[in-house]
Amino acid sequence: MKKVLVIVPFAMSEEEVGRRRKQLDAVKLGPDIVFEYRAVRCGPASYTSHHDFALADFSILDAGLDAQAEGYDAVCIDTMSDSGLSALRSVLDIPVIGPGRHSMLVAQMLGEKFSILVMWDRWKPLYAKTLGELGMRDKCVSVRSIGVQPDNKALLAGKEEVVFPALLDAAQKCITEDGADVIILGSTTMHEAHGYLAERLDVPVINPGPLTYRLAETALKLNLKHSRITYPAPLSPKRNMIRAIGGAMEAKGA
After folding, report:
1. Member of which family (predicted)?
2. H-helix or E-strand containing 17?
3. Among 98, 198, 221, 226, which residue's beta carbon has the most beta carbons within 10 A?
4. What is the rounded CA–CA span in Å between residue 119 and residue 57?
């Protein structure tokens, strides 16, 4: 039985983590793989600035640092920012999958141009960073926001009647006005809207969280993992320092 750790990027209760776990309902996986979810123990309240991005990288590194030693076969990061992905790849010899870059790469398998559909404008720097790293700025025709501040814990619960039609309207503009032939949901927190959008749009709609689960399963079945040339291991690992900083932040409720 293969075991995959899904790192939830915010400190939250088990009930709140359960809303993230619902993403598993969107993909059929084999009986020989299980996914376990773990919220970070410290980190930013939201991802709205480069200050937050730096803290997010650390918090996810802290959460997944010992995944391999704990018996996990792969790690999935539950945020389109791909926070901590490169750092975890440098310290782990198991596949580490982030939804941001992989959603964009899969979009190129399905069409020529894509748009990223988002809740609010403060997320846009996250996509600009990944698009730049991948050299895919010309493939993304738009990043459209509906101007609604997200709730990282309650997700879209109670907002469906307002948010779902707004997302649909923005997605249609991505297609008719911007020229997108694939839509990417801009956050794993938007997964509850995927079915609604996919049923009403004539182009593929990528649900980033479930995509990472399928890719993790595929990587394990094909015995694939990241390149050590791209992600070299540290010469002097500082695991104890990372753990100490994370523990201190957790104790202070940071």
Report:
1. Belongs to the HyuE racemase family.
2. helix 14-21
3. 98
4. 22
Tell whether 162 and 217 lie within a shared domain.
no
122 in the same domain as 193: yes
Residues 77 and 129 in one domain: no
pTM over 0.90: yes
Domain count, the chain: 2
The pLDDT tens digits along the chain (254 residues) read 999 999 999 988 898 899 899 999 999 999 999 999 999 998 888 888 889 999 999 999 999 999 999 999 999 999 999 999 999 999 999 999 999 999 999 999 999 999 999 988 888 888 999 999 999 999 999 999 998 877 665 566 666 778 899 999 999 999 999 999 999 999 998 998 999 999 999 999 999 999 999 999 999 999 999 999 999 999 999 999 999 988 887 777 66
CATH number of the CATH domain containing 235: 3.40.50.1860
Q: Quick one: tokens of 30? A: 């084999």
